Amino acid sequence: MEKEIGIFLCNCGGGIKNIDFDAVREKLVQISDVAFVAVSSALCLEEGKGTIVSTIKDKGVEKVVIAACSPEFTEHTFGEVLEKAGLNRHLLAMANVREQCAWAHQGDVTKKAIQLIKMAVNRARLLQPVQKKELPINKDVLVIGGGFSGLNIALQLSRLGLRATVLEKEAVLGARLGEAESFSSCDMGPMISEVESDDNIEVLTSAQLVRIEGNVGNFSVRIQKAGEEIPRKYGAIVVATGYRTQLMASSEPDSGGKILSQAELCRMLAAQSLEKQPRTVGFIFDFADENSRFPTLATLDNALAAKEKWDSEVYVFCKSVKVDSKGAEKLYREARARGIVFLKCETPPKVLAKNGRVEIQAQDILMGEDTVFACDVLVAEQQILPAEDADILSSLLNVGRDSKGFYQDENVHLYPVALERKGIFVVGGCRGDLDGGRVLSDISSAVMSIYELLSPGKIVVDSEKVKANPQKCVACLTCFRVCPHSAIQLMRAENEKEVAQVADAACDACGICAAICPAKAISFEGYTDEQIVAQIEALGTS
Amino acid sequence: MSKEIVAFCCQHSAYPAADLAGKSGLRYAENVRIIRVPCAGRIDVIHILKAFEKGVAAVLVLGCEEGACHHITGNDRAKERVKYAEMLLKEVGADGGRVKMYNLSPNAPHKFVKILDEVSKKIADEEKQK
Amino acid sequence: MAKPFREILKTKEFIVTAEAGPGKGSNVSKIVEHIELLRDKVHALNVTDNQSSVMRYPSLGVCLLIKEHGGEPILQVTCRDRNRLAIQADLLFAHSRGINNVLCLTGDSIDVGDHKEARQVFDLDSVQLIHLVHTLNSGKDMAGNELDGATDFCIGTSATPSADPIEPQLIKVEKKLKAGVNFIQTQAVYELDELKRFVEFVRKIDEKVKILGGIVPVVGAKMATYMNENVPGIFIPQRIIDELAQAPKGTGVAKGIEIAARMIREIKERKVCDGVHIMFIGREEKVPEILKAAGLL
Amino acid sequence: MIIAERKLMEEIKRLVAPFKKVLVAGCGTCVAVCWAGGEKEVGILASQLRLARNAEGNKITVLEATVERQCEKEMVLELKDKVAEVEAVLSLACGAGVQTMAELFEDKPVFPAVNTTFIGKPEKEGLWTEMCGACGDCFLDRTGGVCPVVRCAKGLLNGPCGGTRKGGKCEIDPEKDCAWVLIYRRLEKQGRLALMREYNPPKNYRAVKRPGRIQAVKA
Question: For residue C146, with 0-12 CB atoms within 10 Å meaning exposed, 13-18 middle and 19 or more buried, which class applies?
Fold first, then answer.
């Protein structure tokens, strides 16, 4: 049997006391295809790495097993060491004899160490090289949504020299933000003109995405504008479609404009001449969604504005004012200082339109009994909901949404702006009820990720690490349906039959497809069935 | 040495949790054999059955917490497959209870150790009864 | 001897039919009792054919008994258990023994019965069965051969006025009416406006056909929910279930009869349709009480 | 495609009880697509058999093989050597595959390990529903593309029956749609309800003289 496996043991500079490395060495040299077993005290340091390279070169081994600390930290560096020694970095199997053996148990663990290393040897024996491959990518970005987030991203990308196309469903940019929800929110005018004058940004209004294929770096899309479909290519896509607000006005008819939305109140505040300034203004918020951010800020902001402009009595019916957005606490304290009355109630107050005024029955917890207030103007609660076409877009992009229908705002691994599909980002309101500060941080992290992804002009990927074997694939589409990253397509290579094909750029190497494939056609180099079962074979031997 | 317990550990959650257990000096049963996998969703029924063919005492599949899977559906699919494996084992008269799925996050070494102690204690009790 | 059902259909009388469910076994004493009890109290007596796909004494057998006891039987034929040869043969036999009212039904599925592994036939369906009876009446069999002795059946069928959705059901009723039927005995009806809507629909297509509203008394709230789940074509509304639930313990049957009688009176007084068909399977002896409570006896 | 479902283990165990060495043969076409008999299921069944027999202390050797299509003579003959080594064969193919194998290796018992159920399609990943009963006289033109012969529990040509459940569900299973309600909705959408109003005469149930044989034109 040709001796092709080299084993390096590391006693971590004496840090591993309960493994007898000589005994380990003695046991392992007996394995027929093991060329050598070298014990060293610090493989991760320069000197250790040097010995690995020289030993590999002069012993001419093809596979390397390193028994040391956890691969989580050192697999990458040892991979590079293998490359220096002229070996493919994937021909490395590690045995975690430190954290998961020496440090994890009392007393001598030499036997366990030997078994862990044998498991690694069995796996190493079957390892195959995986080549790196560079894929040219398109550096343009498609921004869906011409609101605050969308325009900001386009501008910042342009400053970084990346071209963006802003796709806006309405006929004009920033359409929805015309009805500013809070009195002090900024004016969009200058930003829109800056976008329209920037030649790095192409604006397509009353246009919609209708088709998308390909994956990160090479999305080819179809955009529908004025009845015809424009084919385009992009390297990354940003979803910035914002949210939709729904007035929670109670069922009573809107009695003569007395029940308003935040935006309507702002317009009243902005209006110079107002024949009768409302003496009492009521706000209801916090009942539909307790930890609402934007409605909280808007209510506090407008309550203060109403106090300052009209010096009216202001009542705020709330459940528990959560001030987790930047500046919210300051606003709340200011409002209290200015004499705005906050009434805490468990259940949403009843709203009745009576004799020209709005009557609110609320069960105030502090006073403990039902109190009735009459206000000239009541600003009803507004619930933040996903945009209407959110489900069409999410099925088009084949990306998931959270329990409330917003894009990915719960997955801790993808937080804050990534989606399960590489190259597609989600920013701002379409991700949930975010306040200004969070939207801005979303924008910058999206811009940074896109810049990092696209600026090199190419993507380096593992070539065919996860591969569907065309001979065995029966095109049953199971992998296509289960892949969480939409990395598998059904392709017809020349005159072959249609088979599944994994896109290396989009594949996130999870192996769900390899496990479920009924024809065992998908191999996942490094974790093939044989390589996993080979580790199991090493059990029960000691 | 009592029979081994195979633990397929997802590299995003269970594997780092195991490392952290070792680093923070927590001790657990020595007959555990950890096999690193890219995601709990990589583990299929055949791997579990092959482990039992080898005569291991128990097989654990340790993945990310519900809803926090790096690959979105990896841990849910693993849970379904463990249930299916349990049924297949019961069909052949083996003890279905010996294959289990647990969810933990990478910063939960104590949970990792608790799981292993719980399983090895259960097996020890069952061995005693036999 | 009771008047032939066909003649009664020609009159303007409020028609009342009932349904007798044969037992499981060759002892016919119980069914004879029911025949004796009901034969002079209703215009005709239906005999179920392996009702709910539960194997029982055959419908044809009980029809002969009814004839012998001077009653007017309505033979029920389903398409589940016999193919087209067997059905035609049975019909010839029935006619030759003076049984000439037939109710053409599709039949319940094998799965709801007690021989769940049997092979179900369904060579024909209820509409095709109606066409078949017409063919036999015209002196030919389904293959077009001449018969030595034609039949002369008065043809009936059933329908489900409270089906949801109702439109497909109405299309099927339309097909039945176009095939030509003399009377319709509907499935259990608990909402008068559903029956009214159904009758209006039928009248638009066929003025002459007699429609009998199906009455299935319910003897308790638990029974009602059971029937809603397991008996095909039964949709007992919540209000009736609540009414039954309020009935004190032990008076379930009486309450069921009271509700049924109330329904019959309403149908009669408001002339919703031409009569009623009372199906009190397993409690045939209670039918006279219903008729009395409804003022028909 | 043909949909099948793996037999229960105790039935399979009974079939191979008298044997020490068996071959589990998978098929790479229909039964692979419906997760019943592909290479993956071969591995699982083989492993289950070993586990079962180890538990009984009556070891069994199980060879594993999967051919592209078990209803093709030439492909099945690829297993010639492996069949020679064993005492019996467990075929995970549909009925056609099991019988092709049985015909070609008449000296060895060949047992089915799956139940062939129906011709169908995946409703979603992992769930298959019956679509066609191969009745030999296709009726789909009369019903807007919904087959009542197999998708109606009673195979009615003039449906629906009186037993449809609320919401247009089938009499025997609230999970299943009533085929005739589906036909009504489809034809209504196409504005062709007149087709549903037409009477359908009794069907020719002998269109295919069983067992069926079809001789293509000698190319």
Answer: exposed
- Per CATH, the homologous superfamily of domain A247-382 is FAD/NAD(P)-binding domain (3.50.50.60)
Rounded to whole angstroms, the Cα distance separating B26 from B14 reads: 15
- Report domain extents, chain A: 5-130, 141-242+387-458, 247-382, 464-524
Contact B105, B17 (CB under 8 A): yes
D61 close contact with B: CB closer than 8 A: no
Neighbour-count burial of A396, counting CB atoms closer than 10 A to its CB (0-12 exposed, 13-18 middle, 19+ buried): middle
Q: ipTM of the predicted structure?
A: 0.85
| Whole-structure pTM value | 0.87
What's the whole-number mean pLDDT along residues C93-119?
95
Task: Work out the end-to-end distance of chain C between its first and last CA atoms, rounded to an integer number of angstroms.
Answer: 19
* A95: exposed, middle or buried (Cβ count in 10 Å: 0-12, 13-18, 19+): buried
Contact C104, C74 (CB under 8 A): no
Cβ-contact A297, A417 below 8 angstroms = no
Residue among B45, B52, B56, B92 with most chain D CBs within 10 A, to mutate: B92
Q: Under a CB-based contact definition with an 8 Å cutoff, are residues A382 and A295 in contact?
A: yes
Q: Which residues of B touch A112 (CB under 8 A)?
A: 30
- DSSP SS3 for A143: strand
- Which residue do the tokens 């039945």 mark? C176
Helical residues (DSSP H) of chain C, grouped into ranges:
5-10, 29-38, 59-68, 84-96, 126-137, 167-179, 192-205, 221-230, 238-246, 252-269, 287-293
Q: Is C160 on the interface with D (CB under 8 A)?
A: yes
Q: Which of A39, A35, A36 is nearest to A23 (CA)?
A: A39
Q: What is the pLDDT of residues A336-386, one digit of tens each?
A: 999 998 888 888 888 877 777 778 887 777 777 777 888 888 888 888 888
- Tell me how far apart the terminal alpha carbons of chain B are, to the nearest angstrom: 17
How many domains does one find in chain B? 1
Residue of D nearest to A482 (CA): D125
